[in-house]
């Protein structure tokens, strides 16, 4: 019997609204997300064969599943200014930023090149669907989904990441070599962050449907074995405490505008004549100490809203366009009763207790209870259908729709 292969794009299934955190998942080789977090997350690598079972099942039926995003689609996307893309070429190592014209991109049959696409969840629904399966990890930690497509021999060289990453093979084969070496010094002579010395300790070849999880600072080198090799990387950011506190302090300083008492000017009727005029006055120090004590700046809760706002900011190259034509408030409500409102693919939503932040702004501030509840639902479920929402015309929910931050789900 002659085998024949039918090439069909893989269509990732959407996860259930409530992820089964205690049940075994194929994605993690038959263990639950809870077990994965306890045993592997931020601790040690995990190789999963058949993490996406559809690829192996198709092969058993003499069919062939391709990546959900084709080579030609990716090449078209590389021409977009709003999509961050990079081209890496080896022998010798070269590095360039997009957007790219088709002439600048090596042909599929050429060797030793890799094209990288950041933030693909904002540009293709399949990437967004794959990303949604990882919502058992806090949204605040999520960075994006990157896709690499490569010719034979293509890769980024031996390197390490400062964050957790899931490497999912979607097309072709890639050889991965990893090491837990302590020497992570980089080669200063190269245009890329490539390790000066890489000593492989483990090695595998990943086929479509396989996945490799790597915690931070694991040295690794991935080399494409087939032309058109596609690897999808789900990355999780790990900001420094310096970065978080700087951003939290900056936003806290902005919030002082809402405290009228701070508009009072300093006065010093008790100031004595001084023999040390160059010194900061003790009276001023005393008054500042009193005001700072009132602000409770030593309480971390004062910083957390600003940090949440910072972590909810969209990527720098995110671009939003409002609906044309836009619905009136009444039509908006009528549609919301029948059709789900969801975040735009580029929108980020995070919550700190009862405060919800969307794209860096607190959208629940001074809002009626029903609008606050709607935002809480959007933050938790990434979807909202409301039949009883009222007085929406001046709400932050309607304003977010007009700004293109929220869109109606396509049927």
Protein model, in words:
This protein has 411 residues and is α+β, with helices and mostly antiparallel strands. It folds into 3 domains: 16-236, Cupin (Jelly Rolls, Sandwich); 241-268 and 280-311, no CATH class; 329-408, Malonyl-Coenzyme A Acyl Carrier Protein, domain 2 (3-Layer(aba) Sandwich). Strands 2-11-8-13-7-6-4-5 form an 8-stranded antiparallel beta sheet, with helices on one face. The protein has a 3-stranded antiparallel beta sheet with strand order 10-9-12, with no helix packed on it. The model is unreliable at 1-5 (pLDDT under 50). The two termini are 42 Å apart. It contains 10 helices and 18 strands. 23% of the residues lie in helices and 20% in strands. β15 and β16 (355-358) form a beta hairpin.
Topology (SSEs and partners):
Elements: E1 7-9, H1 33-39, E2 46-48, H2 53-60, E3 64-66, H3 71-77, E4 85-89, E5 94-97, E6 113-117, H4 125-132, E7 142-150, E8 165-171, E9 174-179, E10 202-206, E11 211-214, E12 219-224, E13 229-236, H5 241-255, H6 282-295, H7 304-311, H8 329-336, E14 341-343, E15 349-352, E16 355-358, E17 361-362, H9 369-381, H10 396-403, E18 406-408
Parallel strand pairs: 1-3
Antiparallel strand pairs: 2-11, 4-5, 4-6, 6-7, 7-13, 8-11, 8-13, 9-10, 9-12, 14-18, 15-16, 16-17
């Amino acid at each position: 019997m002659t085998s024949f292969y039918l090439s069909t794009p893989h269509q990732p299934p959407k996860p259930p609204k409530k992820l089964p955190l205690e049940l075994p998942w194929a994605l993690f080789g038959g263990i639950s997300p809870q077990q994965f977090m306890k045993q592997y997350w931020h601790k040690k690598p995990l190789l999963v064969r058949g993490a996406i079972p559809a690829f192996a099942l198709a092969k058993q039926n003499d069919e062939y599943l391709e990546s959900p995003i084709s080579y030609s689609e990716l090449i078209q996307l590389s021409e977009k200014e709003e999509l961050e893309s990079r081209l890496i070429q080896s022998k010798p190592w070269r590095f360039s930023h997009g957007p790219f014209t088709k002439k600048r991109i090596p042909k599929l049959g050429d060797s030793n090149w890799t094209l990288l696409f950041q933030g693909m969840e904002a540009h293709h629904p399949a990437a967004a669907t794959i990303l949604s399966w990882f919502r058992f990890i806090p949204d605040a930690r999520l960075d994006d989904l990157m896709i690499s497509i490569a010719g034979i021999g293509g890769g980024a060289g031996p390197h390490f990441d400062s964050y957790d990453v899931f490497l999912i093979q979607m097309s072709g084969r890639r050889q991965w070599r990893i090491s837990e070496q302590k020497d992570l010094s980089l080669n200063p002579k190269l245009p890329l962050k490539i390790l000066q010395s890489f000593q492989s300790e483990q090695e595998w070849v990943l086929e479509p449907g396989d996945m490799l999880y790597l915690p931070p600072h694991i040295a690794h080198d991935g080399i494409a074995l087939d032309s058109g090799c596609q690897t999808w990387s789900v990355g999780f950011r790990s900001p420094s405490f310096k970065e978080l506190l700087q951003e939290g302090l900056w936003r806290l300083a902005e919030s002082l505008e809402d405290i009228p008492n701070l508009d009072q000017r300093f006065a010093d009727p008790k100031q004595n004549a001084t023999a040390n005029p160059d010194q900061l006055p003790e009276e001023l120090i005393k008054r500042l100490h009193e005001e700072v004590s009132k602000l409770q700046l030593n309480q971390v809760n004062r910083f957390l809203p600003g940090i949440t706002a910072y972590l909810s900011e969209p990527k720098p190259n995110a671009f939003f366009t409002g609906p044309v034509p836009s619905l009136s408030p009444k039509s908006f409500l009528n549609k919301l009763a029948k059709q789900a409102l969801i975040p735009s693919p580029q929108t980020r939503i995070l919550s700190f207790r009862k405060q919800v932040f969307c794209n860096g702004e607190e959208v629940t501030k001074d809002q009626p209870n029903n609008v606050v509840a709607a935002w809480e639902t959007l933050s938790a479920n990434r979807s909202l259908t409301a039949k009883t929402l009222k007085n929406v015309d001046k709400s932050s929910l309607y304003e977010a729709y007009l700004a293109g931050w929220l869109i109606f789900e396509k049927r």
